[in-house]
């Protein structure tokens, strides 16, 4: 006889005796006779296959499974399915109820970015959904992630398309709250390359370093896909004696000798100075660029 008991199983991470565990908790309805719970743990591996990893029979309203890097690994999405039986006869059972999938590992928020070559900084948050264990007294409770970028159009030798504010981040131990047990933030900026090279796709890769524990040593988080939108660039010129063409195409001449401010940004610390000197005009005064300074 199948009945619905609204068990509502939920998976939460927990550190038990220095090891990462997942805990499945569910409602404990007051019923007579008492109930026996069958909890089936399963994982959705990175290849997309569903595999059972553990089955428990318990009178408690919770069940634990350990993440040992073998049966359960970082990068897995984990489920628990709970069925309740009457202890005395086991003839009556509830409908099996499954938890939402719990992703165990490193997450990036947002999972992908679409940015433009406009100089703006975009915040990328790195978080661990499982607690950070301390392997020994001499080790601080943290995971160090080395960050790198890669242009996916590797056939062309191009300069980097994105810049990160840090080449590594530390995920420090903290009490688990919501879906985060440790978090760090960095910024991503599109490199303004002054080239009309179309929209380009890059990825950000994170790699745990210096970790001896099997759980973290064999784990590589998923990459972050970054799409960089190409924006039209502008050009300005100062040439010959000298003729000047501004960014918006306005043209004029400046024959004077001295040091001048050629270009200055109103939004950031960027400016160009030019030094003009007499370059020997016979019929009229002529000046030529003889030096430039850029900040």
TrEMBL record:
GO MF annotation terms: signaling receptor binding
GO cellular component, one term: extracellular region
Family annotation (InterPro entries): Dev_Signal_Modulators, Ig_VWDE, VWF_type-D
Protein's recorded name: VWDE protein
Record-annotated VWFD domain positions: 234-295
Key word Disulfide bond present: yes
Keyword Signal among record annotations: yes
Keywords associated with the record: Disulfide bond, Signal
TM segment ranges: none
